[in-house]
Amino acid sequence: MSDVDNLPIDVATIHSALARAQSTAQIEALAEVEQLLRGHIALLLPEVQRQVEDLSPRCGDWYRGTAHLRAIRAQVRHGLGDSSTDARRQIDQLASDCRWLLTQHEAASR
């Protein structure tokens, strides 16, 4: 178990970071938003991983969840790229991934 597994998930803070990701345009600010999103993804990933592992293996939700988690892990390894277009695309993808993880977290919390 890593240190990140013991940190609380602050839903309001994550929503704030997602809103900031949509409204930020300057490349310098995008780097900061990228780090925020990566941090939130790191917090949410272990919990959602456990949720997916608890599903019946080889059911549709298990396959979709496993594939989505694999894609998220691959995406967080990418940087912002060499252009503002690349950076914007990366931020949009990280925000989408973070939003999906947060949705899974909120669904499990109900």
Number of helices: 4
The count of β-strands is: 0
Structural Rg: 14 Å
What is the makeup of the main sheet?
Answer: none
SSE pattern: HHHH
Shape: globular
- What is the helix content? over 70%
Unreliable runs: none
Distance between the termini: 24 Å
What's the average pLDDT? 90
Could you characterize what this model shows?
- 19% of the residues are buried.
- The chain has helices spanning 11-23, 27-53, 60-76, 84-109.
- By secondary structure, it is mainly α.
- It has one domain (3-109).
- The mean pLDDT is 90.
Short synopsis of the structure:
The protein has helices at residues 11-23, 27-53, 60-76, 84-109. With 110 residues, it is mostly helical.
Layout of helices and strands, plus pairs?
Elements: H1 11-23, H2 27-53, H3 60-76, H4 84-109
